[in-house]
Amino acid sequence: MTGEAAPRAIRFELSAASLLRLAVFLIAAWLVIRLWPVILVFIVALLIMETLNPAVAWLELRKVRRGLGIAILFSGVFLGAILLLTLTIPSVVAQAAALFEREPVLRAGLADRLSHYHLSAPFAEWLRGLRYGAPGNTMGATAFAYSLRLFEIAAYGLSAIFLALYMMIDRDRLRGGLYALVPRTHHIRLSRIMLNLETIIGAYIRGQLVTCLLIGAFTFILLTACGVENAMALAVFAAVADVLPYIGAILSIVPAVLAALAHSPTTAVIVLLAMLAYEEFESRVLVPGIYGKALRLPSSVVFFSLMVGGTLMGILGALLALPVAATIMMLIEELRVDLPGERELVADVALRARDDLQEEEYERRTEGVAALEAAAIAVEISVDRRNQDLHPGITP
């Protein structure tokens, strides 16, 4: 009879380098968690800067000094924002308060209309039995908490605006410092990434502003023409909700239709059909025309990105999901990352050859040149290449 084999001991040994990497990762994760509000301010400042940079460049082409162009642009945006808030906020607040006060009456009227139909009768009963949490003594504490939150958001927003202003003023020095930290062999690739990032962010933010303003104006005109009360508040809500692709369409339509249904079923049908027609026009005509080829994201990637962003960070995550996804796709393309299921094509070989030629030209032109001047040369070479790609028949 043979004796049983002794159990084998399994030992896990970590090298000093592995322990160091783990410590660095944990410290970095802790810093990200602790400094997350500051990181968000920096991200928003980048979004603002990349959105306004094309306008500043347009002014520079017309012989306006960069500092003066930035001052003109920020002053115009600031005055426009004050004018818009002055004209809309009092009306929106008043109409929102009126909606809140009339909510029980509107809900009862809607429930009465729905109770006449067999299919909607259960929903009518649910509306009649709907009860909110007891307001009482918690209302003041809730209002105070929301006031503090709004004040905090406003403070972070102003910080992001001023940070974007300083970054735009010190653009050349910041760019020179960034290029000084990166090896020269990667400067051309870095300049292309920065140009593509500016295109993605600028197109996304400008597109969001245009589509939100258009649906807000359309909703206000439609509800006013149909005689629906509180059209301004509902239009502002539709404009804010339209920031979220796909989901925003539903969020913008439902309140407008419910408000119109309280007026009359015919009005509700008209509002529903008009809003659906506009949403179709926006998705088929406006969005492709405004965003163009800047994002280049398939619908499946858009939907998945929105789910991930919304799950991780809520509304803010949904807002940042699309530019982040487009940036990741762009980085994979620009860094020539070989994906597991991809095979190198002839076009990829040609692109790598063009990259090598540009890097050789950059090395030749920047020999003995400081990082600040080298950054400008890298941007010039990348802009020339982008112009060649956009207009193949034109040589620089």
From TrEMBL:
Write down any Gene Ontology CC term. plasma membrane
Q: Which UniProt keywords apply?
A: Cell membrane, Membrane, Transmembrane, Transmembrane helix, Transport
Cross-referenced InterPro entries, in alphabetical order? AI-2E-like
The residue ranges crossing the membrane are 12-33, 39-59, 71-100, 153-169, 203-225, 231-251, 258-278, 301-326
| Any one biological process term the GO annotation gives | transmembrane transport
Domain of life the protein comes from: Bacteria
Q: Which Pfam families match?
A: AI-2E_transport (PF01594)
Does Transport show up as a keyword for this record? yes
User: What's the chief localization of this chain?
Assistant: membrane
Location in the cell: Cell membrane
The record describes its membrane topology as: Multi-pass membrane protein
Q: Does the keyword Transport apply?
A: yes
Q: Which PANTHER family match?
A: PERMEASE PERM-RELATED, TRANSMEMBRANE PROTEIN
UniProt lists the family membership as follows: Belongs to the autoinducer-2 exporter (AI-2E) (TC 2.A.86) family.
Under which name does UniProt file this protein? AI-2E family transporter
